[in-house]
Amino acid sequence: MIRIAHWIGGSERAGVSGRVGPVFNPATGEQTAEVDLASAEEVGQVVAAAKEAARAWRSASLAKRATVLFRFRELLAARSPELAAIITSEHGKVLSDAAGEVARGLENAEFATGIPHLMKGSFSEQAATGVDVYSIRQPLGVVAGITPFNFPAMVPLWMCTTAIAAGNAFVLKPSEKDPSAAQFLARLWHEAGLPEGVFTVVNGDVEAVNAILTHPDIAAVSFVGSTPVAKYIYETGTAHGKRVQALGGAKNHMVVLPDAEIDAAADAAVSAAYGSAGERCMAVSVVVAVGDVADPLVDAIAARLPKLKIGAGADPESQMGPLISAQHREKVAGYIERGAGAGATVVADGREAEVPENGYFLGVTLLDNVTPDMDVYADEIFGPVLCVVRARTYAEALDLINDNEYGNGTAIFTRDGGAARQFQFDVNAGMVGVNVPIPVPVAYYSFGGWKASLFGDTHMYGPDGIHFFTRSKVVTSRWPDPGTSSVDLGFPTNR
Ligand code: NAD
After folding, report:
1. What pLDDT is stored for residue 489 in this prediction?
2. For ligand 1, is residue 149 a contact (CB within 6 Å)?
3. Does the CB atom of residue 465 touch ligand 1 within 6 A?
4. Is the terminal CB of the chain with fewer CB neighbours within 10 Å at N or C?
5. Closest residue by CA, ligand 1 atom 34
6. In 203-257, at which residue ranges do the beta strands (DSSP E only) sit?
7. pLDDT tens digits for 290-320?
8. For ligand 1, is residue 332 a contact (CB within 6 Å)?
9. Which one of 49, 192, 281, 367 is the catalytic residue?
10. What is the SS3 assignment for 417-447?
11. For 178-231, how does the pLDDT look when each residue is reduced to its tens digit (9 = 90+)?
12. Is pLDDT above 90 for 484?
């Protein structure tokens, strides 16, 4: 049995807590490894190593940091097929999707190579006579990332590239369900010449998370995961004096207006709902069909479903892989039952699909005539289940989204530029797509939702990422002419 250890001080370090967790291959249902689960004491050792490393790393020149980032980027690009295969073996998503995840993470490394420019402050000459004022941004010290199972490489890359480039030491607590991608990233950082202790991985569960949230030497926590945990992380971390950004779950609506191109909208709905078996925080889980577009749209989506190839992620023919675990598959299947019981029309039932026998496979489900009072609408299912809600008007569709608990991503499909612009203006969500079903922002913007999809005020990566992982200092300086000193007890003004 493979044992997945922590990564501390430039090498693997076996855990000593005596607790381990199982890691499975979701395509076969076999346990492939066990991962060490850290105790609070082990987290303390990791943080101590990171604290030591942070002191030296913040003094490394911007040029030196950028050089490490460039090397890391090159290594990541060269070895992305290897990393994609690791992701597929523990997460289950198909290889092309895993490669896509790595490619999006790579963009964050590319953004962070520009750190000399990103760390620039501002300068005001002669704010008062002989007085200059300027701002600088400095790293926080030791910062931590706690990440979900569904993007085991991309989400850590969202955080660590920016945090490290900005001069912090970064402690990663990856999901215990698929921890090997984090180990792989640690090796790449090491090979890229990052000093020991600047990137560390501590594997674990709630015990490690709580140790991170309460550790006095961790200045900031960046979290991505489900909403109840995100809320807990935000409240506990901030109560312990930390800066926290905690991204949570989602229920993303795709509005289709009557003038939309039906085939394009159906293609988009199918790929955004069922890609990665719906285990994406930006997955479209609700299509809001406005007016008489509903019948032809549901027919067009339904017609595409029998053609989807479901199978092991490592098989290049597969378009959709298994779910992460047996329990999760049961939970998702239970929602299909509840939707049907509540009166939704089951157009396609994933439980009846032909799928490989072993592993955690579930076919795709399409539920029509879903109403907001149903559990299938209210809850984040996080599986290959697409709900169609029928709305009479644009205003009704908009109210549905704005009344929803979550506000991560949303999209509108239309040929009417004016309608799209109005939607962008009206809608309460952090990321909006216009004829783009999964509007994940490019690396030089920032990623984040509204409402119960994000606790905190800065979004992830891009300019907000730099802001989150640094703090600003403003310097007011005067170099008086020699021999002109005098005592003035008044409060300084610039008059
Ligand atoms: P999760 O909340 O179960 O776990 C996330 C992390 O928190 C893991 O590292 C886990 O070890 C830890 N954790 C789990 N339970 C905990 C607890 N009770 N106390 C403290 N720590 C705990 O999430 P998941 O199942 O790994 O990931 C799926 C969820 O993440 C979905 O809800 C999805 O929408 C969300 N997600 C959101 C985004 C986003 O950007 N908003 C991106 C990806 C995933």
Report:
1. 87
2. yes
3. no
4. C
5. 249
6. 218-224, 243-247, 252-256
7. 999 999 999 999 999 999 999 999 999 999 9
8. no
9. 281
10. HHHHHHHHHHCCCCEEEECCCCCCCCCCCCE
11. 999 999 999 999 999 999 999 999 999 999 999 999 999 999 999 999 999 999
12. no
pLDDT score for 371: 98
Fold of 252-434: Aldehyde Dehydrogenase; Chain A, domain 2 (3.40.309)
Interval 154-164 mean pLDDT = 99
Q: Is 308 left (phi over 0), alpha (psi -120 to 50) or beta?
A: beta
CA distance 236 to 477: 39
In this prediction, residue 488 carries a pLDDT of 82
pLDDT of residue 380: 98
Of the chain, the percentage scoring pLDDT greater than 70 comes to 99
Residue nearest ligand 1's atom 17 by CA: 206
Domain locations in the chain as residue ranges: 2-248+453-475, 252-434
With a 6 Å cutoff on the Cβ, whether 235 touches ligand 1 is no
Residue appearing with tokens 């169609």: 388
Which amino acid, residue 392? R
Asked if 196 contacts 68 with a C-beta cutoff of 8 angstroms, the reply is no
Looking up tokens 């015990």 gives 207
Contacts of 467 (CB under 8 A, 6+ apart): 458
Q: Is 281 known to be catalytic?
A: yes
Whole-number mean pLDDT of the chain? 97
Helices H / strands E in the chain, number of each = 16, 23
Atom of ligand 1 nearest to the CA of 226: 32
Does 214 contact ligand 1 (Cβ within 6 A)?
Answer: no
Tokens representing 64 are: 């030196």
Pick the CATH number of 2-248+453-475 from 1.20.1250.20, 1.10.220.30, 3.40.50.300, 3.40.605.10: 3.40.605.10
pTM greater than 0.70: yes
Edge-first strand listing for the sheet containing 365-368: 345-348, 365-368, 385-391, 284-290, 252-256, 409-413, 431-434
